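Data availability (excerpt). The following record was deposited with the supplementary files.
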Amino acid sequence: MSYLAAAPDSLAVAASDLSDIGSGLVAASAAATAPITAIAPAAADEISTAITTVFAGQARVFQALTGQAAAFHAQFVQALSGAGAAYAAAEAANIPSLQTVEQDVLAVINTPTNLLFGRPLIGDGANGTAAHPDGGAGGFLLGNGGNGFSQTGNPGVAGGAGGPAGLVGNGGLGGAGSAGAAGGAGGTGGWLYGNGGGGGNGGVALRDGGLNAFTGGTGGVGGAAGLWGAGGSGGQGGSAGPNTATVATGQTTSFVLNGGNGGDGGRGGWLHGLGGAGGQGGTGSSAPSVTLDVGTGFTILNNTPGTASVAYLPPPGGDVFSISPASSTLGTGGTDQVAITFTAGHTSGTIQFISVPSGLAGAAGRAGLPGPNGYL
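Predicted structure:
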């Protein structure tokens, strides 16, 4: 049995280094050619002629030997490079076979628990998908929970929850929510050892996302640890998105966009582990004016904590002829119907809100409780 181990990466590095050395030797030989072969003309006496003949011959012999050494060096580097490539190719060829063996072994081990509980004995849980957003559970003995699916479609759809770990493993990460929706909760860490998964971020706040999207989504709660491990961090609350929008006829939009609250951190391990950090609250809108593309009418909602006013103006040279009312002063939760009259031949146009108050920032999430020795 051979105890020789080959590292293809090391062979490639060595071949590169030797190639650089060879280039240096060739350059040195070329630089020395002229000084050692271009000997000054001999004097007229016989001794000078003999000395010149001897040294000229030695120079030619040296150049011949240098050429042979360079050729040998090139052949050696080529052989070394070829050996490295051959080892790398052999490793690449063996990987699929080894993976197949691993999969076959795990299939035998996991089949009983998959059939009985829908969960492997060893292995990571599957990541969530659009059809099944929650991450799968990790193996009963060993495995991380799958990550929850992050929503990118219709507003108001919460992110998928991270899957729980088994005996040893980390909980999966919660997925991000779509506009105005909460992030998914992080998965719990392994019963014996493992960290809780981080909560997903809340979705952004949008003006044209519907009533539930005017405030950013709440960050997902971090997953708790088991006996030993750190709690997962809470997800960040959703922040205000673009301060422009297309508001169709009959749709509702808001005075401001508010940031969502951060998610709470997960509990640290029962025996040892720090609690997860709370997620940061999202930022609210702060622009003093808003530009909207609108239809023939929309509903305006005051979603600030007190009485507030906004004025409506058509940009100069635009498609809007008049706006009624010209401004709205509303208490918290109050609404107003705004009617738009367009210039001849137009059914939509652009208006501006001015003197818009700033949106509220979301509150930060609470840090998770540490385990008994979690402060160490």
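Summary of structural features: The chain is about 25% helix and 10% strand.
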